[in-house]
Amino acid sequence: MRYSLKQLAVFDAIARFESVSLAADKLALTQSATSMALAQLEKMLGRPLFERQGRRLVLTNWGKWLRPRAKQLLFDAQQIELGFYDQQIISGELRLAASQTAAEHLVPELISHLDSAFPELRIEFDEINSGHVIDGVRNYKFDLGIIEGRCDDTRIDQQIWCHDHLVIVASAHHPYANNDSVNLTQLEQAQWVLREQGAGTREIFDSALYGRIDDLDVWREYSHVPVLRQLVADSLYLSCLPYLDVIKFVERGDLVVLNTPDIKIERPLSFIWRADSIENPLRDCIKREAIKLVKRNQRVM
């Protein structure tokens, strides 16, 4: 065996950061040693693993083929080391990303639970919309993602965590607020403020209206739920938001959930990971503990 674990670690770090200097900082190596390790690996394999695009180093097709296999070897080596040093197997670092609803209402409790149960486990966390979570998982930026709705990419595996539902909300002074029900014609006549394109909430809402309302008057699109909530509370807009994001404001009287019998919108919140990724006890542990928490708290909305 002519390649070394050090060379594979250098390759994986450069693939992650798309930069020799950033990879060197991560691995506590000099830039020259990092460049040399990559050059030795490429020479041994007889194939270029990266190509330069501006200031970035981007994986070639050979690099994309090698990366999941290199990660498998590096992970197995780590597990061997942990075993011989009698450390917890559930230890190390995992990169997690979640869409806004899960990030704000479910992930903090999950991380708190994991910190208590598995103190050697470190979680890097990002909150972004579902489309960006999928892109990040697909491009190896994240080891595990949590999205709203579905992912149809065959390169991604998916497992439902729990369910949420979306509601259509108005201010307490909106003309529809006191209606027993609101029909499709009334919804089409209203002005709307909605999540941006690419957000899981928006995609599910658009799918629910497809073929039923052809010309919705979308006045504004924003990525931040608090902005949408306040716009609805202060004006005559409607919005469609997760129930978890509005329940406190409904109870306080700032918002009203409209009864829309023609539209019922439920959605899953799901874990996603690369279909070709290695077996990962850290990822499996997080999914297992998350499902246990939902069942314990009866959080199937």
TrEMBL record:
Keywords attached to this Swiss-Prot or TrEMBL record, sorted alphabetically, are: DNA-binding, Transcription, Transcription regulation
Occurrences of domain HTH lysR-type (ranges)? 1-60
Q: Which Gene3D superfamilies match?
A: Periplasmic binding protein-like II (3.40.190.10), Winged helix-like DNA-binding domain superfamily/Winged helix DNA-binding domain (1.10.10.10)
What the entry lists under PROSITE patterns is as follows: HTH_LYSR
GO MF terms listed in the record are:
DNA-binding transcription factor activity; transcription cis-regulatory region binding
What Pfam families is this protein classified in? HTH_1, LysR_substrate
Does the keyword section mention Endoplasmic reticulum? no
Q: Which InterPro entries match?
A: LysR_HTH_N, LysR_subst-bd, WH-like_DNA-bd_sf, WH_DNA-bd_sf
Q: Which family does it belong to?
A: Belongs to the LysR transcriptional regulatory family.
- Tell me what this protein is called: LysR family transcriptional regulator
Protein source organism: Neiella litorisoli
Q: Taxonomic lineage of this organism?
A: Bacteria, Pseudomonadati, Pseudomonadota, Gammaproteobacteria, Alteromonadales
